Amino acid sequence: QVSLVESGGGSAQAGGSLRLSCAASGRTFINAAMGWFRQAPGKERELIASINGAGDSTWYADSVKGRFTLSKGNGKNTVYLQMNTLKPEDTAIYYCAAGPPTGSRFDYWGRGTQVSVSS
Question: For residue 78, which of 32, 38, 24, 3 has the smallest C-alpha distance?
């Protein structure tokens, strides 16, 4: 059974920081592409950051570029999203996802963690 579990969400003030973690279990994710999505109230889920299976290429949405950093843990079964200079518009449910090494799609999803940023 594949499982992705997010943690680290919570509340922060604008300008603050939070760090999200995603732990994968049930199979080896060493070569999996990993991504972070978010869904704000009334909006569609959007991909905000991803890393390929080799771990040598990352992508960020313009809305978070320069503020958020995605990284993989040493064991490769954990991925992190460091979120700095948070803005109220970052308020959303954040989801971790995993898929084939190229990152062309994401087949496995976590249940999400809430991030709320106040002004």
Answer: 24
Query: Tens of pLDDT along 51-98?
Result: 998 888 999 999 999 999 999 887 768 899 999 999 999 999 999 999
Residue with tokens 């009334």, as numbered in its chain? 42
Contacts of residue 9, defined as CB under 8 A and 6 or more positions apart, other chains included, come to 18, 20, 94, 113, 114, 115
DSSP states along the chain = --EEEEE--EEEETT--EEEEEEEESS--TT-EEEEEEE-TTS--EEEEEE-TTSS-EEE-TTTTTTEEEEE-TTSSEEEEEE-S--GGG-EEEEEEEE-TT-S---EE---EEEEEE-
